[in-house]
Structure formats: C-alpha cells, structure tokens
Amino acid sequence: MFCEKAMELVRELHRAPEGQLPAFNEDGLRQVLEEMKALYEQNQSDVNETKSSGRSDLIPTIKFRHCSLLRNRRCTVAYLYDRLLRIRALRWEYGSVLPNALRFHMSAEEMEWFNNYKKSLATYMRSLGGDEGLDITQDMKPPKSLYIEVRCLKDYGEFEVDDGTSVLLKKNSQHFLPRWKCEQLIRQGVLEHILS
Amino acid sequence: MSEAYFRVESGALGPEENFLSLDDILMSHEKLPVRTETAMPRLGAFFLERSGDAETDNAVPQGSKLELPLWLAKGLFDNKRRILSVELPKIYQEGWRTVFSADANVVDLHKMGPHFYGFGSQLLHFDGPENADISQSLLQTFIGRFRRIMDSSQNAYNEDTSALVARLDEMERGLFQTGQKGLNDFQCWEKGQASQITASSLVQNYKKRKFTDMED
Fold first, then answer.
1. Where does the DNA replication complex GINS protein PSF1 C-terminal domain lie (chain A) (predicted)?
2. Helix, coil or strand: residue B129
3. Mean pLDDT, to the nearest integer, of A92-120?
4. Of the four listed, A41, B19, B81, B134, which is most buried by Cβ atoms within 10 Å?
5. Residue finishing a domain among B18, B53, B87
6. Which band of pLDDT confidence, cut at 50, 70 and 90, is reported for residue B33?
7. Is A178 in the same domain as A92?
8. Considering only CB atoms, which chain A residues are within 8 Å of B72?
C-alpha cells in the first residue's frame, strides 16, 4: 500500500512525548517525495493512455493513485507543521538561545524559521509598553515578590546583578536574587526556586 | 504536558477531520471492509491473493472484498458507488450496538480499534442505512462511560493510572488526561506552588535524554 513511509513520519512525531522535537527525518521525507513523484508519473502516463485509446477502465486506478498523492501531501504538511509548533514552544520555554543538541535536530529551514520567529517576537515586545518595551516571556506565573530565594543546581559561574556586584553560582549555593534576573535560569534548570 | 506546545486538535467527532491533526491522520489510517464495484487495473500488486495476472492488466477484480484504510475508502467513495461500496466494521453493527446499550462500561474500547468514536463518526460519511442508529449508539455509549472517566480522573492523584485508562479509547484517554491536569494544577495551587517558578517540563525531558544521546 502506498503512504507507509509518510505514516512512519507521522507516528515518529506522535510518539515523541511532551512536545519534544525529534531529529529531522530528512531521509524519510525524501522517500515520501520520491514516492509522490513515481505516483504522479504513473498517473500522467495512464491519463495520456486514457485520452488516446479511449478506455475508461483506468479511471479508478488513477483515482486510487491520486488519493495516495493527497494522503502523502497531508502527512508531510502535518509533519512539518507540527514540528514548527514544537520549535515555537522552544522559544517560550527555553529562551532565545537553544542548546546545541536541539539545534542538530532542526533542519536549516527550521532554524531560519526559528530566527525569524524570534525576531518577530522581539519586535512585537519592543513595541509594547512605551519606550522600553515589555518582555512578555517573563513572569509566566504571577509574581509574589521582587526578590526570591534560589538554590543553584549546577555550577554556572559568575552572574552579575544589576548594581554591579557579581555572584558565584556554584552547585548547592543559595542566594537571594531579583526575580527578573533569575527567571530564565530557573526555567532552564540551572537554579531552583525555593519557597519559604 | 509542555506548556507552550499547542498541537492541532482532532476534528474527527465533528463533520470533518482536521487536515493538520496528527491524531486524525492516525485515526483515518485504520481499516474498514469494502467491496470493489469495478475492476481496478494495475493495482494487483497490493492485493496479491485476489489480483488477476498480466492478461487482465494485473487488476483487482470487481466484487473483491478488501480492507482499505479509511482515507482511501473516503477518497474512492461516491454516492453512486461506482468504484466501491463500504461495509460496516463489526463493532458498529447491530450485534455490538446491543452490547453497548446493555452496559457500555465493560467494553474494552481500546481493543476495538483505539479510535472508536472518531472512526465511528467519520463512518457516517458513507451514507449507510444504519447511520442514525450508529450515531445514537456512539452517543449513548459515551454517555454511559463518561461518569466513570470523569470520576477516576478527578480522584487519582499521584498514582499509577494505567489500569484506569487501559480500556479507554483515544478520545477518552485525552479526556482523562485533561481531568488529571486539572486535578494536578489544583493540588499545586492548594500547596501554594502556583507562584513557584519551575523548570519547564520540556527542559527536564531534554536533560534526561542527553545521556542516551551521548551513549550512541
């Protein structure tokens, strides 16, 4: 039956839990496109044969292949679109700099899309709230205080606070820091927010 | 569930599937029995037991009984049934409908084709004579099972739920998950953790995977 490879792509994405991005299956995509090309050419030749010889019994076969073409198209478009949704989620959950491991999972075009999305988001954020702009990726949960207690989960190094002093983030050290500086690091798993 | 990933939802319960929904694509891959009303030349390679040989142009003969995926059946079907006619899978027929009306809760809907409701709703496209009964049966089955799903999803906190979801179809599992999420969010709020900034679940999952990647 046709469209098996396309279904494999869809299943691969469906299996990845929690919105994770698996590696870009370039090979699989190429195979689907090859199958589509073969189907199209077979249909072309059958259509020409129908026109020239006047047989009408090839029409169900042509329709069969056409349905398979449409199905392949649907699977690839859904595959690519769902990956974009996952990549978009990365900007909101990881921040604007992605770790290398993730970047290798994206194709060049997806990377370009991610950069354009970042730019659009940045432009939009700058247009809000007067001169300074407003960072809407901050404060995802309603803040209760300006400063928060954090514990370091891994060695990160020097970290500079607004008034110029710097803090050494070593594993298991605890600090009392401004919320807006730490939020990114907490989301990335470097720091841990301690509730008192 | 990753907070910022909003996948395309299934539209199978409505009039049309959603083109971009991965769930709908998987659902429409399930097979149903059909009967060909005309020979289909040159496709014999797919149905080797039934196909003709080179003389008939390697055709699938008229009147063959095949199992085709829903997407293909939908594409080849038309009102005049020129290419194929569709039969109902067993679980949507009279016999099973009676079972569902007796007690819907005992049936293992996951085994009966994991997309029972979605597939059943899309079957209505084929304008069969039993459509009204099928749609009633789908509705009543869901009504019969819903209470238990809602109850168990709202009361199973921090425990292994595999026994509870084993006999649910995909749509019901989605409902169960939504219920669980509501319960977990509420408990989190009650504990005062609603204002605690947490590492995103996406980040945590990538960290766990990093070790397996390095091993390759």
1. 144-195
2. coil
3. 92
4. B134
5. B87
6. very high
7. no
8. 64, 67-68, 71
Write down the ipTM of this complex: 0.89
Average pLDDT, chain A: 90
Distance CA B153, CA A52 (A): 63
**Cα(A62)–Cα(B117) distance, integer angstroms:** 32
Task: Kindly state the tokens that stand for A68.
Answer: 């398979």
Q: Which residues pair with B35 in a beta bridge?
A: B65, B85
CATH number of the domain enclosing A37:
1.20.58.1030
- Domain CATH code at residue A163: 3.40.5
Give CA separation, A97 vs A92, A101, A102, B122, B159, in Å. 11, 12, 10, 43, 36
Helix (H) or strand (E) holding B141: helix B131-155
Number of domains in chain A: 2
pTM of the model: 0.90
Same domain, B45 and B5: yes
- Regarding whether A121 and A30 lie in a shared domain, the answer is yes
Report how many Cβ contacts below 8 Å link chain A to chain B.
145
Highest mean pLDDT among A2-11, A140-149, A186-195, B185-194: A2-11
Q: Give the domain range for residue A32.
A: 4-127
Burial class of residue A104 (count of CB atoms within 10 Å of its CB; 0-12, 13-18, 19+): exposed
- Is residue B86 very low, low, confident or very high in pLDDT (cuts 50, 70, 90)? very high
The answer to whether A154 and A171 are in contact (CB under 8 A) is yes
